[in-house]
Amino acid sequence: MTTDRKTTFLTEELPRKILLHCPELDEEGTVSGVQLSTPDHLDGFMSTIHKLSFQYKSKDGSDVRTLNLMVKVMKGSDEFRESSKGKTQFTNEIYIYTKVLPVFQQLLSTTESDFAGDWCPKVYYGEAGHFPTYSDQYETILVLEDISPLGYKAGPRLDLEEEHLRLMARHIASFHACTYAMRIRKDARLSALIDGIVPLDFISGDKTFTSYDVLFKLGANRLYKYLDDHPGELDSEAFKLDITNLRQRYGTTPIRLMQTLLRKDEVFSVILHGDYNRNNVLFRTDAAGSLIGLKMFDFQENRYATPVIDLAFYMYMSMTEDMRNRCWDAVILEYHTALLASLAAILKVPQDDGLLDPYRLEPFLEHFKCHAMYGVIVTLHFLPWMMCPEEECEQLAYHFARDIHSNELAHWTMVCGGEEVDKRLLGVLRHASSKGYFEIVKQ
């Protein structure tokens, strides 16, 4: 399998597939001026993202335009894809884009709601399977609109401003509302959509999600070592007891706690983004610099589970201690207010209608409290990767792909970013303790 083989597919076969797949394009149209590039900054741990552009002209000449696209493909050996559950993750991502989003958008159009359902960049092509002219492996190929020419760009690398946090909360709330609206309406399509998502469990029978088992354990071990070296940081009996309980119950296997937090809930379980954080959204601003838009992407870790996964993770990852103290509760309330408003709009009922009672603030806050530790555990693993210098992150990424069980990965995980990282992670744990989120550990 050569790079030339893949390049030929991407520049010759794929444009034609896009014309055949995308309803707004003429399958008998022509393609010219194809350009393909692979920017280094778009290279992910598990995927490669190419930029593809070409001139498109419909058969009758009435539609002539340049298509600027992003092409996402899997990377790595079969062994790497197996240990990281790449096949499941990327196949589920294609499913969300090609099956779930169209149903949600149809729901919004038939209810005449004001929501357009444009949560994501436009999808031009998505397919999973074998592409013999591309490679000998099982592959997924996803083609989305490149929205950077429209002014969308990444937010701050780590610490988001309050307006970013609130916009992200409103955005994901309207997405979650579609699941709840379909449930309230007893829409038969919902169960079919849920059944189409391949379960991405952390533990299934006697099998464990290997990469996360290692990463969660390393992330937790780093904090435990820091606390062992700085016992004075356990500055209250309540915090000390919470950490003690966590270590006793899940010290070597935090992945068991994570699996518990994936449990289904007849009221609150929702079709998730699953990896909703600063890395997987792009923001748009007006001339004055005010936020006016947001698009999300990367549904690799989508699940049918608690909506708190799409909240606690990005909130813990992107809030400084000062920001948490100032607006943690306000961001949660922003989400809930947008959720009820979205539900009422989709269902065409007033917000005080009894149909919405299961989703009122009090039961939602209780549900949030019981699941927020999901965001804590993921942050223990991922925040060091985002905070450390680029050269350390390169070491982490290299050893993650080479051998996840290596001593080198364990070493870099324990030291990357230094004490600044340790103190920030400690702040996350202390905040979770003060909010009562550790209560789930005792159950």
From TrEMBL:
<protein>
    <submittedName>
        <fullName>CHK domain-containing protein</fullName>
    </submittedName>
</protein>
<dbReference type="InterPro" id="IPR011009">
    <property type="entry name" value="Kinase-like_dom_sf"/>
</dbReference>
<dbReference type="Pfam" id="PF02958">
    <property type="entry name" value="EcKL"/>
</dbReference>
<dbReference type="InterPro" id="IPR015897">
    <property type="entry name" value="CHK_kinase-like"/>
</dbReference>
<feature type="domain" description="CHK kinase-like">
    <location>
        <begin position="142"/>
        <end position="345"/>
    </location>
</feature>
<dbReference type="InterPro" id="IPR004119">
    <property type="entry name" value="EcKL"/>
</dbReference>
